[in-house]
Amino acid sequence: MTHTVALECSDFLARYGPTSQAISCIRREEPPAVRSTLSAGGRNAPRQDRLAELRSDIRKLYTAGSPQDGESMPWRRPSEPSRSTWPGTPAGPSGVQVASRVHGIELNGRALDPAVCWTGSRILLHDLGEDNELRVTADCPYAASGEGLQRTVDPDGTVHLHTQFEVCAARRVFAVFDQPDLKAPLRLTVTAPDHWEVFSNSPTPRPRPAGPSTARWSFPATPPLPSYVMALVAGPFQVYRSQAVVRGRAIPLALAARASLLEASEVGEILEVTQRGIEYFSTVFGQEYPFAKHDQIFVPDLVPTAMENAGCVTLGEELLPHPRATEALRERRAETVLHELAHMWFGNLVTMNWWDDLWLKEAFATYWAAAAQAETVGHRRVWATFANGKKAAAYQQDALPTARAVCAPVPDTARAATAFDGITYAKGAAVLRQLAAAIGPEDFQAGIRRYFTRHRWGNADLQDFLAAMDHDRADGLAGWSEQWFRTPGHTTVRPDFDLDENGGYSRFAIRQEPGTAPAPLRDHRLAIGCYHLVDGHLVRTDRIETTIAGAHTEVPGMRGRRQPDLLLLNDDDLTYAQARFDERSLTTLREHIGDLSDQLARALCWGTCWNMVYNAEFAARAYVRMALSVLDREPDTALRELLRLRVAAAVERLVHPSWLRTGRRLLADTAHRLALAADAGSDHQLGWVRTMADAAVTRGQTAFLCDLLHHVQALPGLVLDAGLRWTLLRTLVVNGHAGTAEIEEELRRDQSAAGRLHALGVRAARPEPAAKEAAWQQLVSGSELPLPLVTALVGGFQTIPVGGHELLEGYAARYFEVIGELWDRHPYGVARRLAHGLYPRPPVGQRVLDLTERFLLRPDLAPGLRETVGNAGQTMARCLDAQATDLRSWQAHLPKPADSVVRLAFRPGAAR
Ligand SMILES: [Zn+2]
After folding, report:
1. d(CA 384, CA 167)
2. Is the pLDDT of residue 632 over 90?
3. How far is the CA of 361 from the centre of ligand 1 (A)?
4. How many angstroms separate the alpha carbon of residue 723 from the centre of ligand 1?
5. Which contacts of 433-436 are long-range, i.e. CB under 8 A and separated by 24 or more positions?
6. Which positions ≥6 away from 531 have C-beta within 8 Å?
7. What is the pLDDT of residue 425?
8. Is the pLDDT of residue 54 over 70?
9. Using an 8 Å Cβ cutoff, are 394 and 573 in contact?
10. Contact indicator for 736, 801 with CB cutoff of 8 Å
11. Catalytic: which of 8, 166, 266, 340?
């Protein structure tokens, strides 16, 4: 099948004075290439302040520049003298080719020789005038790894396209100033097969015939946008249209996906969340929805979970699981829809100046998505999910040597890609929650409204945000901001008290100390919760809110109070600090955590126990037993789902390897029992079957799963869909009860794209050296590897049966030999998945830490690779510490804190 898809884009550079420009790209599917023409110029646009500055920079740079400079320069932050942002067709940070051929470059009507002025990544220009018009015609390749214009071909030959530009991949589709402070309108014309649906940032216009089976869509101009949220999505999508009516204004909504992926119930649910979100955000932000419409399109092979293109959100298909979504997934999907919607204001209406203020959009989108969801799902439930999920991950990340501040310098776009992490999203959101607690929710909201009024359609940074928040505040927020936005790490708070003879506090203080990585002590507004056992329930009898500062803060309000059965520091989760339990509280929880009826408090207790396990202060097997004993009566589905994952993670990585088989057996037995007891066809039932499949280790356990797969046994209401069948088969294969023949037979049943990926993964999971070697070769020798393929292969490769670690032992050294070259060869998303996913897993232990340390001494490592490998090494060291504590607790038959037994000599951030 051959299609022609042509793009003409206008008005990119309007902000620089001259408007009217056009890009036209002619895209041919055979061979895959884009031809693009860009022209910049015009007469009547209002001159912007930055124009003169920009032009002089360009003049300086390009009259003095040389092709070699252009080739090697990464995309720099604007304030740096080596700035080089004239529209070009530059290579990506990993050297991925952007334009396969540049046909012509015209400056102010004068043809330039591409062989001279195109460097492969930049265009060098001389003799610039006051106003300039540049026209570039180039062929650009499609993307297969997700960044740029992704082209996905279904097994039946159907083609779908979508753009993914963040951080700086717009230049892989057309010539553009690819940085967030350079906002400009976009006008796009698309020529494509006439049966396709075509979406962009502006409302989709009525197409006009443009040849046999071909049509042309001429999109109207957008408001000023940064290039990373410009978008094109095209293909034979199935579309559902509706509208949101907010204060009399009708906003068109579209929801689209590949044919038959969306079900009517999902359409209704997602559109309702969207409508509710638009109402909520327009009210609290004091600004109406900024764009003319809101499209949400589920696309294949999307690299992030979702992307907030202005008025044209893309979402990953993993949010549409079949045959049905669990309640936990539906909540996550609603949260994602609201997160991307919040970006229409935070990011798209007001954009950060540069990537060091990425939190200005991501922390806010995370925070406001939760706040909006709380309106319907329930306040304590939503913040419980946040505390135990995203925030817990941020604590872990913030304890690594590479932890950075929420607002930290990002020198170039190669580093910008590494800022999309738990620090920016979850710690950022937690810091905003602490800000609201510190200044009061009304002042917080008033500050947000001032921020939008001042900066709408423009750019902003931390100082602009603080100025909007600081309005009329005598004390100012400069010191607060320095503590919370500018310094990395978390702190830990512990109770420190004496008791009188009646069991009351004669003295009570809160001690604050740095976490495992050095961190400055902060001022916190926090709540202390006192819980007593009353008629078999743990209920809160007192709540004392206070401000603490420094290493030691006396809390006079606690003096004289009876010591509670459970003392919960940071109750209500107001601040960002890890809390610890005293001995009595820990003892209470081991017996009674299931009797704590408050959802948020229970989530915080589970989170604190997990942090203590991870920090080698509480034995992993005690945590596992505690969770297994109450999981069946945990009413919060999100918390239950999380606990199930945590127990599995604790068994795999945090218990001592000598207890791995026992832990697996206990987990699989519990899962088996709970799957049998669960309601027919419920989420629990499915979740427990999956857990059992992941943990199964005995002959009886695998035999049960085998019977399920072959319909010898059935669980009432359990739908054995293709995904679950692959999960069950994988268990049988890993444990040596099925092999290649069964995999091929399953693949004959399931010829879908997902089925092929599953087959790849299960083949790689075979417990045979040849299977591991084949997967390894595929991963290290491929060039354009699609991300889903990498994920499937890495997952299968790393899966081994209990006791089968010798299968992977030889790959630890090989990993360090090849990973540098793999990092350079692939775009960031794939490179990171390889570096992180292939890093050797426990129980290889200390030898891998030595190899890691030696690797990090290499002077030539890319910063992102250094961070990824360094953090993986640090995480493994933490696991080994936790395992040692676990072993010691077993030997002593009591859990107690242990000294660190694994010394980490390397400091991943420090090497040069
Ligand atoms: Zn986001």
Report:
1. 31
2. no
3. 7
4. 28
5. 433/367, 433/573, 433/574, 433/576, 434/484, 434/524, 434/525, 434/574, 434/575, 434/576, 435/469, 435/480, 435/484
6. 538, 539, 540, 541, 564, 565, 566, 567, 568, 596, 601
7. 95
8. no
9. no
10. yes
11. 340
Tokens of 641: 């789902």
> Is the model's pLDDT at 243 over the cut of 90?
yes
Q: Which residues have beta carbons under 5 A from ligand 1 (an ion)?
A: 362, 365
Closest CA relative to residue 775, chosen from 795, 756, 746: 795
Q: Is 249 helix (H, G, I), strand (E, B) or coil?
A: strand
CA distance readout (Å), 545 to 56, 101, 542, 575:
55, 65, 10, 11
Give tens-digit pLDDT for 101-139.
888 888 888 999 988 887 776 677 777 777 777 777 777
| Residue 725 pLDDT > 80 | yes
Torsion from C-alpha of 289, 292, 297, 299, nearest 10 degrees: -110
Supply the pLDDT for residue 117: 82
pLDDT of residue 6: 55
| For range 685-708, the mean pLDDT | 95
27 pLDDT higher than 80: no
CA 156 – CA 477 distance, rounded (Å): 58
Query: What domains sit in the chain, N to C, each tagged with a CATH number?
Result: 4-141+174-221 (2.60.40), 346-485 (1.10.390.10), 810-912 (no CATH)
For residue 890, the model assigns a pLDDT of 82
Angle in degrees, 0-180, between the axes of helices 620-630 and 637-649, rounded to the nearest 10: 150
| C-alpha to C-alpha distance for 408 and 833, rounded to whole angstroms | 24
Per-residue pLDDT for 187 more than 70?
yes
Q: Is 172 a residue whose pLDDT tops 90?
A: no
- Distance from the alpha carbon of residue 470 to the mean position of ligand 1, in angstroms: 25
pLDDT per residue as tens digits for the range 145-169: 788 999 998 888 899 999 999 988 8
Residues 6+ apart with CB under 8 A from 200: 186, 188, 190, 219, 230, 231, 232, 233, 312
Cis ω for the linkage preceding 31 (within 30 of 0): yes
CA of 524 to the centre of ligand 1 (A): 27
On whether the CB atoms of residues 401 and 909 are closer than 8 A, the answer is yes
Report d(CA 659, CA 667) in Å as an integer. 12
Q: SS3 of 474, please?
A: coil
Cα–Cα distance measured from residue 137 to residue 131, given in angstroms and rounded to the nearest whole number? 20
d(CA 79, CA 77): 6
Sequence-distant (≥ 6) Cβ neighbours of residue 103 within 8 angstroms: 35, 114, 137, 138, 139
CA–centroid distance, 371 to ligand 1, in Å, is 15
Which residue bears the tokens 């990373």?
228
Token pair, residue 785, equals 């590897």
Whether 236 and 197 have beta carbons less than 8 Å apart is answered as yes
The distance from CA 374 to its chain's CA centroid, rounded to whole angstroms, is 21
**Lowest-pLDDT range of 315-324, 495-504, 806-815, 830-839:** 315-324
DSSP state of 123: B
What are the DSSP E strand ranges found in 572-725? 578-579
- Residues 830, 785 contacting (CB under 8 angstroms): yes
Does residue 130 have an active-site annotation?
A: no
- At residue 482, φ and ψ (nearest 5 deg) are -60, -45
Alpha carbon distances (Å) from 141 to 134, 236, 878: 22, 21, 43
Alpha carbon distance, N-terminus to C-terminus of the chain: 51
From the CA of 365, how far away is ligand 1's center (Å)? 6
- Quote the CA–CA distance of 565 and 526 in Å, as a whole number: 20
Q: Report which secondary-structure segment, H or E, holds 72.
A: helix 67-72
Rounded Cα–Cα distance for residues 478 and 485 (Å): 10
Q: Radius of gyration (Cα) for the chain, nearest Å?
A: 28
With bands split at pLDDT 50, 70 and 90, how would you rate the model's confidence at 348? very high
Lowest mean pLDDT segment, chosen from 20-34, 89-103, 791-805, 812-826: 20-34
How many Cβ atoms sit within 10 Å of the Cβ of residue 545? 13
Ligand 1 centroid distance, CA of 140 (Å): 28
Mean pLDDT of 318-344: 91
